[in-house]
Design goal:
This protein has about 240 residues and is α/β, with parallel strands linked by helices. The chain has one domain: 3-Layer(aba) Sandwich (Rossmann fold), CATH 3.40.50. Helices cover about 35% and strands about 30% of the residues. Strand 6, helix 6 and strand 7 form a beta-alpha-beta unit. The longest helix is centred in the last third of the chain and has 16 residues.
Length: about 240
C-alpha cells in the first residue's frame, strides 16, 4: 500500500525570548551584544515516520512533546528547519479554529474562501454548499460576518467545510474540545465515516478514550522525539503509565 504521508528526518526549533532586567540588557550591550538573550527550544528532533493510505493514527504525548508541531508540518502550515515532508492527495482538517477564515467576511463568503484554500473548485463548493451549511447548523447566521461568531460556531463551520472537501488525508488537532457535546458526537461519527471510506486520518488529542475508538495506531512523542510507534492500545497504556 502506498504512503499517504512521509516524514523524513525533520527538525524544528523555536527561539524563546526572555524578558531581562534593564541591568542585564545594559551589560549585554556593553559586552558588544555577545551571548544571547534568548534560548532555543527544539520542538522536533530528527523525526521520521510513514503513514499508509487508509491508516488512522493518533499523535500522543504530554504538552510540549511536539505532536501539534508535527501535525502542522504534515499540513504544510509549518516548514521544517531540516528534513522533508511529503503528502499524497488532498489534505484538509482542523489545525486551529478559524484558520483560513477572514473575520470581516460572512460565513457564506468564508465557505467559498476556505473551500478554495482546501483545493475545491467554485462549482464543487456550490454543489456542496447546502450540505456544508446544514451540517454546520449555522442556519440564519451564514450571512453574518464571522467576527461575530462564537468559537463553537467557527468550529462547526470550519469542520463542515473541511469534511465536505472529500480529502484523502484528514488532520485534527484537539479541536473537538470546543463544540458542544451533540456536535462533538456528530463530528466523531463523520470522522469514523471518513475512516471507513479508507481516508487517512491523523489526530492529536488528549482524549485517550476517543483516540482509542477511532485510531488503530498510536505514535508517542516526548521532547520532540518519537518514543513509541505501534498499536493504539499500547500507546495509550504507555501514556497512562
Amino acid at each position: 500500500m502506498v504512503n499517504a504521508i512521509e516524514v523524513s528526518d525533520i527538525s524544528k526549533q523555536f527561539v524563546l525570548r526572555h524578558t531581562r532586567s534593564i541591568k542585564e540588557a545594559v551589560v549585554w550591550l556593553a559586552k558588544g551584544r555577545k551571548g544571547d538573550l534568548s534560548e532555543k527550544f527544539h520542538a522536533l528532533k530528527d523525526v521520521s515516520l510513514a503513514i499508509k493510505t487508509g491508516e488512522t493514527v493518533a499523535l500522543l504525548g504530554l504538552n510540549g512533546s511536539g505532536k501539534s508541531t508535527l501535525l502542522k508540518h504534515i499540513s504544510g502550515v509549518m516548514l521544517p528547519d531540516s528534513g522533508t515532508v511529503h503528502t499524497r492527495g488532498r489534505v484538509a482538517g482542523l489545525i486551529e479554529v478559524g484558520a483560513g477564515f477572514h473575520p470581516d467576511l460572512s460565513g457564506r463568503d468564508n465557505v467559498y474562501l476556505n473551500g478554495a484554500i482546501l483545493g475545491m473548485t467554485e462549482q464543487q463548493i456550490e454543489e456542496r454548499f447546502d450540505a456544508i451549511v446544514e451540517f454546520s447548523e449555522i442556519g440564519q447566521f451564514i450571512d453574518t460576518e464571522v467576527k461575530f461568531y462564537s468559537s463553537g460556531m467557527y468550529l462547526r463551520l470550519a469542520f463542515s467545510v473541511a469534511v465536505h472537501t472529500d480529502p484523502e488525508v484528514f488532520l485534527i488537532d484537539e479541536i473537538l474540545a470546543v463544540g458542544d457535546e451533540p456536535f462533538q458526537k456528530k463530528c466523531i461519527e463523520k470522522i469514523q465515516q471518513l475512516a471507513q471510506q479508507g481516508k487517512t486520518l491523523v489526530v492529536v488529542s488528549h482524549d485517550l478514550d476517543l483516540v482509542s475508538r477511532i485510531c488503530d495506531r498510536g505514535i508517542l512523542l516526548e521532547h520532540g522525539k518519537i518514543t513509541f510507534d505501534g498499536p493504539i492500545v499500547q500507546a495509550v497504556e504507555l501514556l497512562r503509565a
